[in-house]
Specification:
Three copies of one chain form a homotrimer.
Chain A: H1 15-19, H2 26-39, H3 44-50, E1 68-71, E2 74-80, H4 100-122, E3 128-139, H5 147-162, E4 169-175, E5 184-192
Parallel strand pairs in A: 3-4
Antiparallel strand pairs in A: 1-2, 2-5, 3-5
Helix pairs in contact in A: 4-5
Chain lengths: 193, 193, 193
């Protein structure tokens, strides 16, 4: 970690510095603390207010499952769709029924739905330490190629809330079909305290 | 957690109460213990017998992988298909070759195969604390919409065995294709002791 | 664990022996240590050299995400494509544009790209204890059936590097589409120290 000179100047992109606390030296811990203060100057709950984000009502599971399960410091979040504040879902296939930009908007809306779930299930978004892992699933045509751009709609929202701690490991892929023909489904793992 | 009054009456649906042990108050711990006793009055092995479930022979991996890998308290279970007791798989695409109900039956059969694997690999199903995370993948047409109902075939079986601890975080989605044209493939994470 | 006689002679296939350290008896620990020495006689870095593997340059994320996130002993690796040393990706749909063998080669190339990422992000591949979980996603036709064989291209490489510790829990499935029409995308979890 940080044995390659080019990494030393950009701690904001280096997850290892932030997460692998027992492995980093005192110098790195100081750097990390400095970074965290800089990148996340206010609480997630305060950010929701400051950004004037309108969260939908936390969705009820559409089957035999739970919205989240917390094991130790890992919060596993069930696959969420683009639930709007009027309780309807954004539906359609990207590249056919929806444009790429509409796909981006759908992915952002999934993010708002997941924030609503975390707020309800955890009591406060301020219990979130970071986003760990994201699986972004796009309802797209066989020819569609820009899945990462679509899922950025979700990931950019996470960074708006948690700064660099909103940046996670991620896959962005195209599905054969999604429940109720929703445009995007995303499941994620959050680190919580 | 439990700061919203509407949660207080339904601990059975609130994963946080059950899992985040260090975070819950004494009162909640008592509630959780009471719930666990109520929901899971007998061992998983005893439930298998009581429900007269017929498990297939634990499948051998069809490639370079292991049936399960255990890291700490998390048991990662490889993707399983709907293996029957006669050693054949339930195949076909839901919405084309198979009805929705046949899809549900296939998902339940995946559950029986995973139970067989856990029993063999862990020595006993009684080492399972709860189901943590499920990824339910349906071999379905592009128009299919009821993936959650299909994967309930798996999840309902888990609840039959482990009560509310069988309820997990979950995604249910449609794949372009699955190995050997199996109808459903499910991977999961179990908490074990 | 190891309560079934047929398991006793093949510890190399039994993940529980290796991982569930607190659960195994002294006798099993001795067996495990012996196994590890036998299966992994040299470091992963030395294996890369010995096998004359040519790693591509570690890919930069194609969106708002990180190559890896480490939480405790788990290293979550983002979905990687078959990045070649000339900085291009292997593209096309298996069963249509690519043969099965070309799919296998693409999955192996994904493995080389992930090794490059781990080397850069962790500082050394010798920090890897084992491969824990693999999700192998094949860009394939609706009729394709041999996803496990394709993803073996990745898994066999892991076993070349880490011996039996390279064998993981795994799913191998067919996607509707993948970013930039890449042939294979793989995300994985590694245990690290």
């Amino acid at each position: 970690m940080c044995r390659q000179p080019e990494d030393c100047g950009r701690h904001m992109e280096c997850a290892c510095y932030i997460d692998a606390a027992p492995l980093v030296s005192m110098r790195h811990n100081r750097a990390t603390k400095f970074f965290k203060q800089k990148a996340n100057p206010m609480s997630a709950e305060a950010r929701i207010v400051e950004l004037k984000l309108e969260l939908p009502k936390a969705p009820k599971p559409a089957g035999t499952y739970l919205p989240v399960v917390v094991i130790g410091e890992l919060c596993y979040v069930s696959g969420h769709g683009p639930l709007k504040s009027d309780d309807t879902m954004m539906t359609g296939r990207v590249g056919q029924d929806l444009t790429e930009e509409q796909g981006v908007a759908a992915a952002r809306q999934v993010g708002l739905a997941i924030l609503a779930t975390l707020q309800k299930q955890l009591g406060s978004l301020d219990r979130v330490v970071r986003v760990v892992k994201v699986l972004g699933m796009v309802n797209s045509t066989a020819e569609f190629k820009n899945h990462p751009k679509v899922i950025n709609g979700f990931s950019d929202l996470m960074v708006e809330i948690w700064g660099e701690n909103g940046r996670a490991a991620r896959s962005a892929v195209g599905m054969g079909s999604l429940p109720g023909n929703i445009a995007v489904e995303i499941e994620a793992i959050f680190q919580v305290h």
